Amino acid sequence: AITVQDILDRAGIGRSTFYTHYFDKEDVLASLAEQQIGLLSQELSQRDVGQRIAPSLELFRHAQQYQQHFQAMLRGHAREVLWETGQLLLSRNIEQALVTVSAENYSPSTPLDVVSQYLAGALLNLLNWRLEAGMPYTPEEMDRIFRELALPGIGAKSPRQKPLSNIRLII
C-alpha cells in the first residue's frame, strides 16, 4: 500500500533522485534484501565455523533484530531475492562447516552438497514460518527446535560413519 510518493516524503528526496537509484518501489525492497543478505553474510564470515555446522541461532537473531525489514521483504519481488540468495549463502556456509567436520571425524553417506542444501532449506523455511507467525518463539528456542528437527535427518548412522551424536560439533 506504500506509494513511491510515500517513500519520497519519508526519505526527504525528490522523484528524480529516487528514479536515479531505483526503478520502482519493488526495486527498493530488492535493494533492502541485498543489504540484509550482505549484513548476514558479513556476520557469518566472522563466526567460528568450528563451533556450529548451521548458523541457525545467528540467523534467527538477525531476523529478530531486523524484523521490520524482513516483514516488508516477505512481499513482492524482494522475497525471491532474499530466499534465493539466502539459500545460496547458507548452503555454502553449511557445506564449508561440513567439510571441516568431515576432515576430522564425520564421513556422511549422503554427499555434503545435498546435506547443506537440505539444512539451508529447512532453516529458511523455519525462519519464514517464524516471521509469518509473528515471532512466537525466541531466537534461542527456534535454534533448539531447528537442531532437534535437523539433527536426526543428517545423523543417521551408515556402516562407514560415526554417528553425528558422537561429534563434538553441533548443528
Short description:
70% of the residues lie in helices and 0% in strands. It is an all-alpha fold. The model is unreliable at 157-171 (pLDDT under 50).
Structure description:
The structure is a single chain. The protein has 171 residues and is mostly helical. 70% of the residues lie in helices and 0% in strands. It is built from 8 helices and no strands. The protein has helices at residues 4-11, 15-21, 25-45, 56-65, 67-73, 77-104, 112-132, 139-155. Helix 3 (25-45) runs parallel beside helix 6 (77-104), helix 6 (77-104) crosses helix 7 (112-132) and helix 7 runs antiparallel to helix 8. It is elongated. Mean pLDDT is 79; it is low at 157-171.
Name the features.
171 residues, 0% strand, mainly alpha
The counted number of beta strands is 0
> Which runs of at least 5 residues are low in confidence (pLDDT < 50)?
157-171
Hey, roughly how much beta strand do the residues contain?
Answer: under 5%
Biggest sheet descriptor: none
Which structural class best describes the helix and strand composition? mainly alpha
- From the N-terminal CA to the C-terminal CA, the straight-line distance is 40 Å
Radius of gyration: 19 Å
Q: What is the helix fraction of residues, given as a range? A: 55-70%
The ordered H/E elements are HHHHHHHH
Q: Please tell me what the overall shape is.
A: elongated
Oligomer state equals single chain
Mean pLDDT: 79
Helix segment count? 8
